[in-house]
User: What shape does this take?
Amino acid sequence: MSTRTGNATHAAAALALLAGTVVIAVLLMQRISQPRIDASVSQLREQRLAEVLPPGEWDKALPGDTIHQLTDDAPTPIFRYWRDGVAAAAIMQVIAPDGYNGDIVLLIGVDAEGVVSGVRVLSHRETPGLGDDIELRRSDWITDFDTLSLEAMPRDDWALTSRGGAFDAFTGATITPRAVVRAVYRALVWFDEHSTTVFSLPRERP
Amino acid sequence: METLPRISGGMDLPRFKPGVQHPPVTIALPATLVFPLIGHQGRALQACVVAGEHVHAGQLLAPGMAASAKGVVRAIEDHATAHPSGMTAPSVILDVDHTRESAVDASSATLDLAGIVGHGGAGFSLSRKLSTVADRCRCLIINAAECEPGIACDESLLCHDAGAVLEGIKALITYLQPEQCVLAIESDKTHAITSFEDALKEGKATGEIRVLALHPTYPSGAERLLVNQVLKWQGLERLPSHQRPGDRGIACINVATAHAVAQILNTGAATQRLVTVNAHEACTARVTLGTPVQHVLDVLGALPVGAQRVRVGGPLSGFELADLAAPVLTTCNALTVATPVPEEPVLPCIRCGDCVPVCPMGLYPQQLFALAQAQDSKGLQRKGIDRCITCGCCDIACPSFINLTTHFRSAQSRLREHAETERAATHAEALHERHRERVARDEQRTIPGTEAPTRTAVSSALSRARARRKRSG
Amino acid sequence: MSEQHTRRAVDIGLLRQSTGATWRATPVIMRQVILALLPGIVLYAYLIDARVLLGLTIAVIAALLFEAMVMWLRKRPVTSRLGDGSAAVTGVLLALSVPPGLPAWQLIIGCGVAILLAKHVFGGLGHNPFNPAMVAFAVLIVSFPVTMTDWPMTADPVARVALGDPAGTWDAMTSQTPLDRYRAHARITTGDTVFTLSSPGTAWVVIALAWLGGGLWLLWMRVITWHAPVALLVSLGTCHGLATLISPTAMPIGIALLGGATLFGAFFIVTDPVSGAATPRGRLLFGAGVGVLTFLIRQFGSWPEGFAFAVLIMNAAVPLIDRLDRPRVR
Amino acid sequence: MTDIDTHALIVDGLWRRNPALVQLLGLCPLLAVSTSVVDAAALGLATLLTLLVANLAVSLLRKHISEAVRLPLQILVIAGTVTLLELLLAAWLPRLHESLGIFLPLIVTNCLILARTEAFARHHTPDRATIDALATGAGFALALLALGAVREIVGQGTVFAGLDKLTGHTEALPGISLFAAEHGLVLAILPPGAFILLGLMLALLKPGR
Assistant: This one.
């Protein structure tokens, strides 16, 4: 009996000891790597943000002034940019929920008038070879949105050519591009209604 | 004459009835007769004669198997049988005594004991069949349908010996007292129909037995299908799949069996049957049961030569005979001597479903085939393999030349064997269980506290047992 | 009585002949299917694109070569199996399902997929659970969406005028199946009655009717049964009819039945005995299932034509149908 | 127990009892991540590394591990290793980390690793355990690499596309292009293609055994 208790104690001690060692190792590793992880995440985001932002110098360095969840249906987050104190551009992160395979996360850059300066895909899980033509590295389809605005194009044209719109579907796939077009259209409509609110919110302390 | 509705499924095969126009040729008795000790569905029979015993025609050699001639039992040994597998079986070998048969007391013969086996395909014992419907027979159906091409013995029987058939039917009517008696025959057998109707007029039985015409579709003569056709004609519900004809008071008896009944009444024994022999010249032969096939063909000068083979039964239900020494028995309706045409190469099943509409039982042969190949017993039973009458319609319909029926036959016998062993196992288990219970009970009786049997009690019991044995033996 | 006469009674082969069964042997069935396709093929080559003949030749040769290769690898007699014609039929069906301008090497890959992956991996003729031509079609459309949706714009004056597009600007467009073309212009011409018949292109309608004719001939010759095609057409028609009631912009029944692969599939694909259901009731269920699924994929899916996928899904359901359909034993 | 010779260990791990191609262990990551050579190589290396650490640790501790707690201990070691690895990758090769996604943490549940620690490392000296881990891990990685190469070539017409993810370059490396991407058999990149190609690989390797 005594040996069994001894064994159990021994085993528990071994387990605790090992668990402790592992926890310490993981904590140490996290301490070392966390700054780098944060840096690389923000670097990646800044790189993408820079791609969709109109060219020029800005009052505040990337990622700009960030606001989250402005209204229930608002894109989140929204990055705001001022040039010489004048509200000049915003980048909206929106989700296209009706993709072929899960959410497509988009960054949509617009200037203060609502003209698109660029659209990029942050993440998606569309079918390789079919749906991933929304990525810039595979096709320049996504640049079709550049310089478009609600004023520049009638409502009916915000659709795929197969439905009578202005956007080509890429061959074999209609769902993915349709989801992107709809998401961009929705974001522009939202921005059209709320742009004053977006820029009137207090600016972050630099 | 009234007509029965056409069966669903089945096939219209060309009418080919060899030898029916000539009267039957009687084949002389051979030197030895052979009686395999096999009963219905291949059950082994126990011989009730011994080697050296003298037997007379009509004497039972085993339950359900009567001698067809006078003679001496030479031996009980393995002998070739007319079985698709070509197997041998323990058989009573009878040396025929060619002296004239002493008169048999025909009046003493009863239908129950004569050991008549149905002359249709299954070889079901007649007495058993009659006993299931005795006293409550609603309808007696005489089955004169013979729709397979190449077999014409029943038709020949009606054409040339309708009187005897009628006599047998009348005897059955007397025995069963059915409410109604019908004879079913294909409408294209006009000669047989007129012959039988003449006999009816002669025997003044026109109102007693009604002749029903069947559409000559193969296999409308199969028992279950025929019974259902008659029930439909009577305006009654057909048999549900779990019922047998006997359960509804219906006896369906082959026309040749009725003829055998007449033989028993006249001579005391049913010793002969008609066999269509289909060789270079076709004829109908009257063969004493137990006669080796070899002898029949020898007498007719039709022994196979060269590549010729002998087939027992028709092209669909029959099989190639492995050994000519096998005897002709009640279920042997035709012998064909011919050179078999090489079979078409079997192609894979393409699931075309052509076999489905032709199946007279409404089964799905294609699925049964797949299940049989997968040896899926449960699936086979679920899809009704036990309902398959192995008529062969699916074989004909199959565009890939698959011999489906062969597969079904072996699947059925495999399942039957399986059920048999299962039953034996449960039986043995029950026996064992009972034994254990008894042992337990005995142990309980001798639990401490009760009296152990004393020495004197034991010895007195022993002496009582001895006395009893002396008295009885 | 002659030897031949007696033989007639012993020989099941001759019985088969007398009832017309040998005449219905598997290789004959395959030949008749190809024969039934001929009028459609001729019209296709004349009205739409003669390249279909080249495609057919390539596909049949490739299918036969693949078949021969597999039979040789599986150490089976090569010639007898080539003679059964099933590989050739697969090649023909595949070549007719893909756009006529499909590059030859893609068509050959399709034949390889059909014969090797869809057929022989499962054990060859009679054992494939999926329709080989449809498996190949699915693989091709997933793999080569660009060329697989590149249908030729027909020299079809009626349709052009009807759609108000006399200049024929469509020639510049790709990614339009005959069915997709309806979708493209549905919005513009909603309510326009002229549109109804001519929209899939009169040439395509003529060819669809040729498939219908071939199919009816096969029915008459009793090579196929009516169950699956009728069930398919009825269920597809019903679905489209209901859709039209709910939403007036939905595809009208006429286009749904005459356009796309509907009639071709109804008589030549869902009637494939091997991968379809084998009993009358099973075939009704199978055809109806294909119809509903085709409608759903056409209406809500991203593929231009849902027929192949509908067939494959129902192929997968065949064992279930077989299991559920118990015979009504007599 | 320790008399299994090194050569046999290596041959077993790499070929005769190859975890992926013979024992069919770890199929989920094998099929999910083998869409390109780079991803396959990365996951293969990560698995190899985890297996090495886990095998070594379990072997070193084998005298102190009692039967009752051996499974929690082994899982703890494996999970700890994978977590460290994930943090490392997230910090220094973020693009690779992103591309491997959930399959990196899922290495914990790769039965291959637990199978080796449980069946081998627990009973053998650290040097044997190391050799076993290297051989088995390499066997798995090579199978992954082969499948990845086939799928990338057939599906996209490239090899080594996205090598930057592995090297830490900032600009995208297109890899070697064999033919235009639109001629690729896209099916090969999709999950069903993975199953079909793995099946074909197994069938082709069968006669060699």
